[in-house]
Amino acid sequence: MKKSDVIQRYIPTKTPLPKEHVEVFAPSNIALCKYWGKRDKELNLPINASLSISLGQLGSRTSLQPIDAAEDQVLLNDLSVDNSQSFAAKIIAYLDLFRTADSPRIRVETNNNIPTAAGLASSASGFAALIKAIDQLYGYALEPQVMSAFARMGSGSASRSLFDGFVQWHMGVREDGMDSYAELLPAQWPEFRLGLLTLTEAEKAVGSRAGMQRTLETAHLYQSWPLQAAADLEKLRSAIDDRDFHRLGQTAEQNALSMHATMIASWPPLLYWQPESVATMQQIWQLRESGIDLYFTMDAGPNIKLLFTADQQQAVEQAFPEVQVIAPFANA
Amino acid sequence: MKKSDVIQRYIPTKTPLPKEHVEVFAPSNIALCKYWGKRDKELNLPINASLSISLGQLGSRTSLQPIDAAEDQVLLNDLSVDNSQSFAAKIIAYLDLFRTADSPRIRVETNNNIPTAAGLASSASGFAALIKAIDQLYGYALEPQVMSAFARMGSGSASRSLFDGFVQWHMGVREDGMDSYAELLPAQWPEFRLGLLTLTEAEKAVGSRAGMQRTLETAHLYQSWPLQAAADLEKLRSAIDDRDFHRLGQTAEQNALSMHATMIASWPPLLYWQPESVATMQQIWQLRESGIDLYFTMDAGPNIKLLFTADQQQAVEQAFPEVQVIAPFANA
């Protein structure tokens, strides 16, 4: 099914007159139960449900402004991006889903305060901010679930970046994907901490989209992934309900390592780890053996995200002086 | 079922008078389709069939000699080993399976010319040599399949070290395990080469026996392993039949990485890799992209075993000056 066919059912046939200027923010998010594998590549429908924690003030701030020009203008972190570049082309293609050719062109300004070198995908917060801004620009007042499903069509994990705190993205079963949206889990956990470690800034050779596809097509072990993810998601939900950090940390770390295991079992092998990744994992395991309650998660890249609680922050900062600590519920 | 109960069915009730001195050799072996997971811990019965290549002149030379003493004597590489140490205790317990208490004690001398630091298990060639020596010592003249099954009871992969060249270890289905033995595959492949790289001599924290068990009990992804191993074994057999080195190399590398993937997906995580392991894998993949026909395999340790053919030997030695090259069919 085509994105535009799904979206047309939720927006007016005639593109509304846009507002003069809108500006929104959406947070980045880190999955504790990973999204790995698509059942529909066009609509970014996942093979498994996932669960994330949003990063509070870290994310994308996006403004939209109709302009009297023949072409859209895209700026990223105050720098103009040529419309032929993939970053701008994706945004423009997404805007086109919501407007007709005679509707005004748009100036899109996005500022990310995410340390992208730490392996945080800016596409999640980027597309979440973009759909929020589009919704305001045209005055749609879309339901949160619809907006999340639309964000998903831009980038799968963007569905989760529309909310703060813990978020669950339902896999859904419908062909049009409109039951595959994210929802806020109401739990507050003020002591919860994330730590970002930038081990290497090397560009990854294979993007997530291609990586998922290769895993799905070539890794025998991937067959066990959907069931594991479903079980992990339930464990994470109960750990959040019980504020059981050990269960949460263990489940998230094993989930991330299992996702990487499916990549490693692919052909050609997909190893996102660098030597520093292995050294850091070994360091974390040693710290844990010495009594520090510290776990980690990793996405499709070499960098490591630490999971701990406020009482361990000093020990974590001592072990990793370069860590950037995030308190996702700081403004709760 | 107990080892002794199985063995008693194949040897005389009364221990024969031993010969004065026997000396035998058994090669080490490297699995191209790995043995990972036991269906019976007492008899070392595997969850999957496996396929290996024996290492020619690299292995264990063992001599047995009855002695007039109250206790057995065990020597490893010309050094006396105390009978309370695990190495000697395992050998003595194995000898006891074949003799009564009134039978003479035995002096066991084993010399390994295997670079054990390269992560080659000496237990495979060690128990293969031991059962060959026991067979001669007591004049049993056991059938090769029975001898292989007996070697398996000492150490699973020892079942494969009774033969030169390519060897398949059948998983078997019987409770007594006597259909779980290794057999020689008759193929000769004179151009086949292995390269041993010693990346680190660090002792591994978790032995294979405990590692398999942890994987089996905690890694969801392990569920897919037995079917993958069965498929890989068939691919390897056809690659050997067709002398198709690419198919063999690809299958062996993916099989080894998939085994490591099941370990990585275990809890607590089992990561046998060191930072150097990752750096070397990346180097191998770069060499392959540059046109060198080079693959690798890894066992439950950090070191890497290269797979290539004679025409690539010069390029491999240039990239890895410290490599120890083995031609398994040199004396064929």
Question: What is this structure, in a nutshell?
Answer:
The first copy, chain A, is an alpha+beta fold and 332 residues long. Chain A contains 9 helices and 13 strands.
Helical content of chain A (DSSP H or I, runs of 4+): 25-40%
Mean pLDDT of chain A, nearest integer? 95
Query: How much strand of chain A?
Result: 15-25%
Q: Helix/strand/pairing class of chain A, anyone?
A: alpha+beta
Q: What would the CATH topology of the largest domain in chain A be?
A: Ribosomal Protein S5, domain 2
Provide a count of the helices of chain A: 9
CA-atom Rg of chain A in angstroms: 20 Å
Number of strands of chain A: 13
The figure for the number of domains of chain A is: 2
| Assembly status | homodimer
Cα-to-Cα separation, first versus last residue of chain A = 39 Å
Q: Outline the low-pLDDT stretches of chain A.
A: none
Describe the structure.
2 copies of one chain form a homodimer. Chain A is an alpha+beta fold and 332 residues long. Chain A folds into 2 domains: 3-184, Ribosomal Protein S5, domain 2 (2-Layer Sandwich), CATH 3.30.230; 192-326, GHMP kinase, C-terminal domain (Alpha-Beta Plaits, 2-Layer Sandwich). Chain A is built from 9 helices and 13 strands. In chain A, strands 1, 4, 5, 6, 7, 8 and 9 form a 7-stranded mixed sheet that branches. In chain A, strands 11-12-10-13 form a 4-stranded antiparallel sheet. In chain A, helix 3 (122-137) crosses helix 4 and helix 6 packs antiparallel against helix 7. The mean pLDDT of chain A is 95. The A-B interface holds A 219-225, 227-228, 231, 250, 253-254, 257-258, 260-262, 264-265, 267-269, 271, 273-279, 281-282, 285 and B 219-225, 227-228, 231, 250, 253-254, 257-258, 260-262, 264-265, 267-269, 271, 273-279, 281-282, 285.
